[in-house]
Amino acid sequence: DSYEDIVNKLTKQGTQASQVKVTIPEGWDIDEIAKRLEENKVCTAAQFKTAVNEATFEKYGYDFLKDIKTESQGVHYRLEGYLFPDTYYFYQTNNKTGAEQAIKKMLDNFDAKVTVGLRAEIQRAGRSLHDVITMASIIEMESSSASYATKQKVSAVFWNRLDDWGDNAYLQSDPTTKYPYNQDKYDTYKAVGLAPGAYCNPSIDAIKAAIYPDENCTDYFFVTDKNMKFYFTKTLDEHNKVIKQLKNSGMWVE
């Protein structure tokens, strides 16, 4: 059945499926979304994860899907990064139809929020949408509570490394060491450059920061203190000095 057929059946046949309001927070990964949908009887977590990797959504004409890497190309979850965080109403079908309906709603939202204009900016910068979404997910994990301007600086640091360091372009982002289940290709301390795909589903601010890094920021390092204040530096020496000062003042996060 097409999505429209399913909706028609649900509305016309007086089915038992009721709607439930579900909030998907910014920065959640697919495992977390799957658990929340299962808790709300939209589908089981397993059905959702299977649909993420195996269901075909190309028929709906999303042009961004052609840019996404597949499981066979090394991504853990094919649609990680593209399930737009927001508050939704989903049907409590508790089956794979519910999983596919939920994914389609989130992809529709991504398609609307990451506009044609933003995609043109990505092309103009000579980057792929997939790389930008992967970068946005790292920015989200590193600076979710920070201002947009700070996110743009974090973005600049990571792009500066990628663009300037060549074979030594290790992003060395701490949150990337945990996803998914300690796979080395996602660990930016072990793998050069960007991972095969995103780590979470980033906010629109993180996506825009990945598209528009702070052009005046020429730094390669940053660190945060206990108050989530960011310190940006250009050299490793400066970076280590900041860390030493933070440790001496009791502001270092262990």
Keywords:
mainly alpha, elongated
End-to-end span in angstroms? 52 Å
**Global shape:** elongated
Would you report the number of β strands?
Answer: 4
Structural class, from secondary structure content?
mainly alpha
Number of helices: 9
Unreliable spans are none
N-to-C series of helices and strands? HEHHEHHHHHEEH
In which order are the strands of the major sheet placed?
1-2
**Main β-sheet: number of strands, strand sense, barrel status?**
2 strands, antiparallel
Strand content: 5-15%
Percent helix range: 40-55%
In round numbers, the mean pLDDT is 91
The Rg value, from CA coordinates, equals 20 Å
Helix/strand layout:
Elements: H1 3-12, E1 19-23, H2 30-39, H3 45-54, E2 87-91, H4 96-113, H5 116-124, H6 129-143, H7 148-164, H8 204-211, E3 221-224, E4 230-233, H9 236-248
Antiparallel strand pairs: 1-2, 3-4
Helix pairs in contact: 2-3, 3-4, 6-7, 6-8, 7-8
